[in-house]
């Protein structure tokens, strides 16, 4: 009896596993059949004129009853509407009472690199090892991610896809959020290298019960690893004859100015250490990402002309003695000091809320146009794409959105149209289909009850 049981057990297990595998496949195909990402839009075929809307240019200027024209993916003109303008050959769209904005830009994000954070098979944002400057996030970018449309609903049209983890995560790239594949999505390839500067002290506990601070005994070791890698890269860049080294080659652009060093750092002492590290090695362009303590070292940041991407406004202060509103006021405080500030969002799942970060900043010191700049023109300048996008200006890409109300207010952010390089993109996906599905169901049930 015992021998029969143990002989039979592997067979039963194999059959169960087989049926589970078949069930998973069936569920996957069923979900894919109706929840596909929207089809990318075709290139702009006809010149378009948007008339009578309020144009928020992204540079602080607002034009009431504006006329904005674009053709072949480029903005032709933005001006006050006039009856004298000849619009023959244009598709004229009257958007009276609505607002036109530049498409928003999301920096330092895992968008397209992770689908479900709790499922390891859907996470492709980190490479093994701790020093990976040659890793390219762009080639792992998944244009079919169901998270992408949720960002477009709120006006985010461009993103900086960024690897995570280790001391040197790799290279980020700028993508536009309407493409068949990563090659078609590429907006600016391999724009910078991302370094996670080590903490001198780490907080213990967890978010619900935070503990005290514990010294990072590996701090000096990690800094030494970074110094060794970057010093080798400096020597490699100067060498006339060299054996190809992918890691050192990736860092060359930092010393030439063709790539930016993005330093992910929070605490004040680490901010100073990391910037001095980059300056000593001759890195041309540095950007701080996160920078929760930026206000404490504002003079140092200003003196070195370092832009800052604040990655999380909707958080508690870093220290119990700090003003509870400090994270909300930080964009205004840094802006008042003349520091170039952009806004990001830590974590991909809720990054669609980026415009509402800007709305929070507008409620704590900034005016609405200054807050808008922190998710459009400021970010474009920081990421090195201000010559192409970030504002509604002649000659730039027609990356723009039309909202029924204030784009930075969650109560009125309701997109009617969105264009990427002049292509009108779809604004409906899984969420809208579910809404229509259950709206029809319950409307019919309510009518039948009457």
CATH architecture of the largest domain: Alpha-Beta Barrel
Question: What is the CATH topology of the largest domain?
Answer: TIM Barrel
Largest sheet: 8 strands, mixed
In CATH terms, the superfamily of the largest domain is Metal-dependent hydrolases
Percentage beta strand: 15-25%
How far do the termini sit from each other?
65 Å
Instruction: Write down the CATH class of the largest domain.
Output: Alpha Beta
Return residue spans where pLDDT drops below 50 for at least 5 consecutive residues: 1-8, 28-35
What is the β-strand count?
Answer: 18
Q: Can you count the helices?
A: 12
**What is the helix content?**
25-40%
Order of helices and strands: HEEEEEEHEEHEEEHHEHEHEHEHHHEEEH
Q: Please indicate the count of domains.
A: 2
């Amino acid at each position: 009896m015992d021998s029969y049981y143990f002989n039979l057990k592997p067979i039963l297990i194999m059959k169960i596993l087989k049926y589970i595998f078949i069930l998973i496949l069936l569920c996957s195909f069923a979900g894919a059949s109706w929840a596909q990402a929207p089809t990318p839009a075709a290139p702009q075929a006809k010149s378009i004129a948007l008339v009578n809307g309020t144009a928020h240019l992204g540079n602080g200027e607002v034009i009431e009853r504006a006329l904005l024209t674009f053709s072949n993916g480029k903005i032709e003109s933005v001006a006050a509407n006039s009856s004298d303008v000849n619009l023959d050959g244009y598709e004229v769209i009257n958007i009276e009472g609505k607002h036109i904005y530049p498409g928003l830009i999301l920096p330092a994000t895992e968008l397209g690199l992770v689908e479900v954070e709790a499922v390891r098979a859907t996470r492709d944002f980190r490479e093994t090892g701790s020093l990976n400057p040659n890793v390219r996030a762009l080639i792992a970018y998944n244009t079919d991610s169901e998270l992408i449309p949720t960002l477009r609903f709120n006006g985010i049209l461009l993103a900086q896809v960024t690897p995570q983890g280790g001391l040197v995560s790799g290279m980020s790239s700028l993508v536009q959020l309407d493409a068949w594949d990563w090659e078609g999505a590429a907006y600016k390839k391999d724009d910078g290298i991302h370094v996670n500067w080590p903490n001198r002290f780490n907080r213990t506990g967890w978010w619900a019960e935070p503990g005290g601070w514990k010294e990072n005994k590996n701090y000096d070791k990690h800094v030494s690893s970074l110094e060794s890698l970057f010093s080798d890269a400096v020597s490699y860049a100067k060498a006339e004859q060299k054996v190809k080294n992918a890691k050192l080659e990736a860092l060359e652009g930092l010393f030439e100015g063709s790539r930016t060093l993005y330093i992910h750092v929070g605490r004040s002492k680490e901010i100073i250490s990391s910037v001095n590290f980059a300056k000593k090695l001759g890195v041309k362009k540095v950007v701080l990402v996160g920078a929760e303590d930026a206000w404490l070292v504002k003079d140092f940041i200003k003196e070195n002309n370092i832009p800052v991407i604040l990655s999380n406004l909707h958080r508690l202060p870093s220290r119990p003695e700090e003003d509870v509103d400090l994270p909300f006021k930080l964009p205004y405080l840094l802006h008042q000091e003349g520091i170039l500030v952009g806004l990001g969002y830590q974590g991909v799942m809720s990054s669609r809320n980026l415009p509402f970060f800007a709305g929070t900043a507008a409620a704590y010191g900034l005016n609405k146009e200054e807050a808008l700049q922190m998710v459009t023109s400021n970010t474009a300048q920081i990421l090195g794409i201000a010559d192409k996008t970030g504002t509604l200006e002649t000659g730039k890409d027609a990356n723009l959105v039309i909202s029924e109300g204030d784009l930075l207010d969650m109560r009125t952010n309701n997109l009617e149209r969105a264009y990427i390089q002049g292509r009108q993109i779809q604004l409906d996906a899984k969420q809208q289909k579910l809404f229509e599905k259950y709206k029809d169901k319950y409307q019919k049930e309510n009518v039948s009850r009457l």
